[in-house]
Amino acid sequence: MTADGRGQPARTASGTRAAITALQAALAAEQAASYGYGIVGAHLSGSGFAQASADCVAHERARDVLEQLILALGGSPQPAPAAYDLPVTVRSAAEAVTLAVLLEHQVARAYLAMVALPEPRLRSLGARGLRDTAVRAAQWTGRPEAFPGLPPPARRPGRG
Amino acid sequence: MTADPTRRLVLAAASSGLLLLAGCRGVEALGRPPGPGPGVAQLRRAITAEEAMVRTYQAALAALGGHARAAALAGELLAQHQEHLVALRSRLVLPGGSRLARPPAPSAPLPLGSGRRAVISALATAERDAAARLLGLLPAAPPELAQLMASIGASEAGHAAVLDPAALA
């Protein structure tokens, strides 16, 4: 439409491939989170268990949305692996919370990559996914982060 | 290791531009300056909003003087907003004479109400509003700026999640 970037970008074959790649990465992260939160919940009780259950459902819903989007773009959603090597061994409630936060960080990075896509709808979906993951991580730790999803060197451009 | 050709090009373009400017009496001699680059308007709005958040937190800290826990949290969140502001300002590079280089008039800080609960609730609302506004700026921003603004918006939503008046009694 216009050359200034305000128009709706035309979808090209390479643009669709890039979108599908980013969506598959987000799907893989959501699949891992859906699996991992089962382990998180198994080591928690009371309000911690309730929070893990709610977060698990949120990740499963996000996973389903991503699958539908990949299908709509003509891609094939990659199946989830049967099991995962967890980044931490979980034997206690504290380790369960550590795993929950690591899962959220992984999901955050995948959604941040989606924000770089040109399609406003996918960019917005990535930003909302990133927002939700930051909220869940903050609820687990009580300490929100300044730059969720961004790698450390990009976080403090004024200092290094 | 080979040098990044893109960066080289940018540096060459920047330095020739400076030489050109230095040889003239003023920017006006170059004719009408080009319009602001993509994302500048969004970046300016994000900076203005972040400046307002910093002022709001400074006012909140003063109002929360007697509440140690709430004031400590507000202090931590204020520090993150200052980091957001540094990151956003570092992306804004404008020629000195540009109309956009002049900062817009600061907006009034948000009304905070009185009492710990009212202040914490007002901060949570301000954080949620700021996060929602940043979401609205994303479609027209270049990809890297969109990622920074999305990350800052997510951070603000995380702030709102821990600003719970009942938990901070």
Classify the helix fraction of chain B into a percent range. Answer: 55-70%
Query: What's the overall geometry of chain A?
Result: globular
Class computed from helices, strands and strand pairing of chain B: mainly alpha
Helix content of chain A: 55-70%
Ends distance of chain A: 40 Å
Main sheet specs of chain A: none
Q: What is the CATH domain class of chain A?
A: Mainly Alpha
Question: Architecture of chain A in CATH?
Answer: Up-down Bundle
Shape of chain B from CA axes?
Answer: elongated
Number of helices of chain A: 5
Per DSSP E runs of 2 or more residues, the count of β-strands of chain B stands at 0
CATH architecture of the largest domain in chain B: Up-down Bundle
The number of distinct helices of chain B, counting runs of at least 4 residues, comes to 5
* Rg estimate of chain B, integer Å: 20 Å
CATH topology of the largest domain in chain B: Ferritin
Instruction: Write down the CATH class of the largest domain in chain B.
Output: Mainly Alpha
- Low-pLDDT segments, ≥5 res of chain B: 1-24
Keywords summarizing the entry:
heterodimer; A: 160 residues; Ferritin; 5 helices; disordered N terminus; B: 169 residues; mainly alpha
Give an account of the 3D structure.
The complex is a heterodimer of chains A (160) and B (169). Chain A has 160 residues and is mainly α. Chain A has one domain: Up-down Bundle (Ferritin), CATH 1.20.1260.10. Helix content of chain A is 66%, strand content 0%. The longest helix of chain A is centred in the N-terminal third of the chain and has 30 residues. The radius of gyration of chain A is 17 Å and the shape is globular. The N terminus of chain A is likely disordered. The N terminus of chain B is likely disordered. The relative contact order of chain B is 0.14. Chain B is built from five helices and no strands. Chain B starts with a helix and ends in a 7-residue tail after the last helix. Chain B has 169 residues and is mostly helical. Chain B folds into two domains: 32 residues; 125 residues, Up-down Bundle (Ferritin). Classes of the chains: A mainly alpha (160), B mainly alpha (169). At the A-B interface, helix 3 and helix 4 of A face helix 3 and helix 5 of B.
